[in-house]
Design a protein that fits this description.
Radius of gyration: 14 Å
Structural class: mainly beta
CATH class: Mainly Beta
Number of strands: 14
Distance between the termini: 14 Å
Shape: globular
Length: 165
């Protein structure tokens, strides 16, 4: 999920990362749409799993400043808190959905390996384990600890920076 410059309709420079994977920092599992579909339905839950395949690649699409959408490459759907709230409660499940709005904005904090939702909470495996099993759902939560750290990697599983302005 490195950088690629694109132009928007407003002729402003925006950044779209190359496709990559999001790996759980401590256990090494990856973010997937539940079931691994190429084109999952709206509201398909996100889980972590150890499998590697083309249907679990994502890219970052900058919207404004450091905020943007985490886009599932094969479907074009983006990561959302279920219900699409811009200020979701802790424990809100993460899903894929086609809508793009303020409730679907995230940023990456590379120094700390955190993915933060615009509402202030962070992506966690449900339960916050440092070694969650396959098919553990992803949720948003305000806690910060080692069980909720992430690394962005290329499709070859090599860590890569993601440009955020």
């Amino acid at each position: 999920m490195g950088q690629d410059v694109s132009k928007t309709a407003e002729n402003k420079q925006k950044y779209v990362s190359i496709p990559g994977m999001i790996r759980h920092w401590s256990c090494g599992h990856f973010i997937h749409p539940r079931g691994g579909s190429k084109n999952p339905d709206n509201d398909t839950k996100l889980v972590i799993h150890d499998a590697i395949h083309s249907n679990m690649t994502f890219r970052f699409v900058q919207f404004e400043g450091p905020w943007g959408y985490i886009e599932h490459v094969t479907s074009g759907k983006v990561v959302h808190p279920r219900g699409g709230s811009s200020d979701p409660k802790s424990g809100t499940v993460l899903v894929l959905h086609e809508a793009r709005h303020a409730g679907a904005l995230f940023t990456f904090h590379y120094d700390y390996h955190l993915i933060q939702h615009k509402g202030g909470k962070y992506i966690h495996p449900k339960g916050g384990s440092v070694s969650p099993p396959n098919d553990t759902e992803l949720v948003l939560h305000e806690d910060v600890h080692d069980g909720m750290r992430w690394v962005v990697v290329t499709v070859n599983n090599v860590e890569t920076p993601l440009y955020v302005q």
